[in-house]
Amino acid sequence: MSEQCHTMGLVIRAKREKDVILTLLTPEMGKMTVIAKGARSLKGPQMAMSQPFCYGDFELYKKGDLYWLRTGELKENFYGVTSRLDALNLAAYFCDVAIAVSEPGEPCEELLRLLLNSLYFLANKTYPDELIKGVFEWRVLAMQGLSPAVHRCCGCGKVQDGGFALDIAQGELFCGECRAKREVLGDGLRIDDDAPRHEWVLLSQGALEAIRFAISTPLGKMMSFRLDDETGRYDLSRAGEKFVRYHLDVDSAALKMYEQMRGK
Ligand SMILES: [Zn+2]
Questions:
Q1: How many angstroms separate the alpha carbon of residue 8 from the centre of ligand 1?
Q2: What distance in angstroms lies between residue 156's CA and the mean position of ligand 1's atoms?
């Protein structure tokens, strides 16, 4: 006996074997594994719905514990993402992050909306890539309850400073002066009594304000700020990435490729 159902969903992974094993991100059912039967014989809507980054209405049937793709209606395929290698690697990295933080059966509407918005911006080059990446990372961290304390220096309470840095493991912000007191050694590494090594990431004032904005603004307004200097955007993105890697344990091959291409 098979039972039919349908859901809106975004393909966040498509593994081609004898069949195509799809990982979907859906608003109500969270992360789902769906099989598109017969990789070589797929055609029409089944073919269209089995591609990475395709978003639409999936018609499925459930047989035993598994969901199979019956047909579907494509709404968006983010074609612009696949025409640019930087964007393609970033989109795949965003999907790796989504896979890491979503669970089967747990609704994740906000994560899905964030991912769809970010793919749209990448596909249409609406904003610089580093800005889209940084905002995506900081918002995912905020959704997971992992926002660092970025509003003032944890040591002295200062709100503005030229030399703010974030402690990645602790999620604490320190101004240049307080950081110096904590025995900063060399390139952002600190040695103190209870923890042998802490990694710091330095932030320009612009990047810090962007992080404050990204973690506290409603999704619909997530890009309504300006960060015109390239260094600021780089700081925002680099800090987001370090936090994601450390706190969400995401090790993404796509991110490494993106960085290699950028020469970082
Ligand atoms: Zn301070």
A1: 48
A2: 4
- Take residue 248 and report the two structure tokens written for it: 């969400």
Distance 151 CA to ligand 1 centre (A): 12
Banded pLDDT at 33 (limits 50, 70, 90): very high
Q: Where are the beta strands (DSSP E) in 77-171?
A: 165-167
| CA–centroid distance, residue 99 to ligand 1 (Å) | 37
Domain ranges within the chain, ordered by starting residue: 3-77, 79-264
Residue 196 alpha carbon to ligand 1 centre in Å: 21
**pLDDT value at residue 227:** 92
Q: Separation of 163 CA from ligand 1 center, angstroms?
A: 10
Identity of the amino acid at 255: L
C-alpha 139 to ligand 1 mean position (Å): 26
Q: For residue 179, which amino acid is it?
A: R
Rounded Cα distance between 150 and 159, Å, is 9
CATH class of the domain whose range is 79-264: mainly alpha
Q: Which band of pLDDT confidence, cut at 50, 70 and 90, is reported for residue 160?
A: confident
Six-digit token string for 132: 């889209």
Cα 187 to Cα 185: distance, rounded to the nearest angstrom: 7
pLDDT above 60 (res 58): yes
Q: How many other CB atoms are found less than 10 A from the CB of residue 152?
A: 15
CA 132 to chain centre: 9
Looking at the structure, give the CATH architecture of the domain made up of residues 3-77: Beta Barrel (2.40)
Q: Ligand 1 centroid to 203 CA: how many Å?
A: 14
Cα gap 257→252, rounded to integer Å: 9
Contact 33, 21 (CB under 8 A): yes
